[in-house]
Design brief:
CATH topology of chain A: Alpha-Beta Plaits
Shape of chain B: elongated
CATH architecture of chain A: 2-Layer Sandwich
Strand order of the largest sheet of chain B: 1-2
Largest sheet of chain A: 4 strands, mixed
Strand content of chain A: 5-15%
Number of domains of chain B: 2
Structural class of chain B: mainly alpha
Oligomer: heterodimer
Structural class of chain A: alpha+beta
Distance between the termini of chain B: 67 Å
Number of strands of chain A: 10
Order of helices and strands of chain B: HHEEHH
Helix content of chain A: 25-40%
Amino acid sequence: MNRRDFLKFAGVLAFGIAAHQSVNLISQSRARDEKKSTKAWAMAISFSACARREGCRDCIDICHLIHNVPEFDNPKDGLRWIWASPYESVFADQTNPFNRGMLKNLSVLCLCNHCDNPPCVKVCPTKATWKREDGIVMMDYHRCIGCRYCMAACPYGARSFNWRDPRPFIKNINKDYPNRMKGVVEKCNFCEERLSQGLIPACVDICPEKALIFGDLNDPDSEVSKVLRARFSIQRRPYLATGPRVFYIF
Amino acid sequence: MVKIIIGLICLLIILFSPVGYNVITGRTGYIPLLKTPQYQGDCVEGTIYMRKRHMEVLERWRNAYVRDGIKRYVSINGIYNISLTGTCLKCHSNKAEFCDRCHDYGGIKPGCWDCHHIPEIKAEK
């Protein structure tokens, strides 16, 4: 091959690679446009409706059952997707002494806030957690390396770590949903697997007092949009600019 | 010179001892026998393709389901739910005599089963 032929060949090759790349980029951006979701999932939790049944654990039990969340005797090993905590610790920043007195014995339901601006996503070094178009902060357990940066970043304590192999501690295994393994972080997924089948989250579905309201904030006629427009609501630590998508109403 | 040749022969014997072992025990032509599914029909892709590429299909399924939120797989054979336990193992219900036979033979240890479940083997009729 002489110099002239080589230059010709190199030119054609470079053009080919460039064409291939640009075709790829165009097809990828088209694919992205097609699956753009217009949903913005959110939840409202009513303090008063939830408090009507003292000691009720229906939502917690059903969530942990269908998602194979194990139960450990030692709370240090504990895993939780949804849990109840006293008002004064969940809303430690609400310093109004009269409210604190009034709500002293109130137990508040907590779960992942599926933040608009999730700090856990920002710190994840492997993109094992990310925000979907519909606002759900997802976990890819295949990618999680267990560094627990996300747990440090989450201001709501919504994430827990598998210190031990969870499988022996799952009482009733739901074979339709995987469990996790030792060394990964897990959290609530807003029942993403149910939403894709057109169902609402299991905790919302089972609540006997209808204390949990779930829906699409982009739809002005959804129940959650209506409730949040009509009633006074608070968020957990909104000044951190995480934009929680779980709202609390009285 | 003789010492070198003896050494080489010893080396060859050691090197080929696994082959010799298989010849003596009559396992030279061994290939793992798989229990293929009862269900008479096609897999999500052709058999030869699946035999060669099932791991790539599974990885694509995993990424599509978890990361892109795509829950259905469309192939020339039909439309399938993307699910290891729900779709693959529904037909290939006998993991021990299907998945494990080859994986054990090849010394491959996939981590799928740490988290994903194996459906109970249905009684054969």
